[in-house]
UniProtKB/TrEMBL annotation:
This is Holliday junction branch migration complex subunit RuvA. Has three domains with a flexible linker between the domains II and III and assumes an 'L' shape. Domain III is highly mobile and contacts RuvB. It comes from Corallococcus exercitus. The RuvA-RuvB-RuvC complex processes Holliday junction (HJ) DNA during genetic recombination and DNA repair, while the RuvA-RuvB complex plays an important role in the rescue of blocked DNA replication forks via replication fork reversal (RFR). RuvA specifically binds to HJ cruciform DNA, conferring on it an open structure. The RuvB hexamer acts as an ATP-dependent pump, pulling dsDNA into and through the RuvAB complex. HJ branch migration allows RuvC to scan DNA until it finds its consensus sequence, where it cleaves and resolves the cruciform DNA. InterPro entries: DNA_helicase_Holl-junc_RuvA_I (IPR013849), NA-bd_OB-fold (IPR012340), RuvA (IPR000085), RuvA_2-like (IPR010994), RuvA_C (IPR011114), RuvA_C_sf (IPR036267). Residues 152-204 are annotated as: Domain III. Belongs to the RuvA family. It is found in: Cytoplasm.
Amino acid sequence: MIARLRGNVLEKGPEDCVIDVHGVGYRVNLSTVSLGKLPADGQPVDLRIRTVVREDAFELFGFLTPAEDELFQLLNTVSRVGPRMALGVMSGMEVGELIAALSRGETARLAKIHGVGKKTAERLVLELKEKVRNLHSEGIARGTTPRAPVTSGNKADLVSALLNLGYKQPQAEKAADVVIERLGPDATFQALFREALKSLRSSP
């Protein structure tokens, strides 16, 4: 099983990237939060990997930090939550925010993540509320103050994610302003990122 990849970023998409390791390209699924933090194409990157083998697929899921890796494993222990759903949940918030939301039982906030919904949010809290309190990776656990939602005043993360996908600064700035105004200050990074991509791809 592949447990780690160290190479150069070859290309990036909205849900995955290709890592060039000595001439071999590995397609790796990442959360939108992690994708936004990847270095530019051609730059080196070191990813922790979880390999998932099914009858019809061999998939790689990547993480930039031990905390992401640990949280992904925990999410996969929840009933009816598979690897892709787990990655979708992690796309909705930064790791520290997600751990805090789970430990505090913030089902309403979790339900706003794309593809989660009320029932899944309740199940996540029920099965993980106590477990996530034992996560200490990188100091992300008890007492951590979650990051504020992305707003027009702190849109840097969204713009950075779009720049990493190859969009120009003016395009990224404009798209960020538009979606933040449309979705409001309480929107998750994932929702803003998806809407920004839709906006940019529909532009002539």
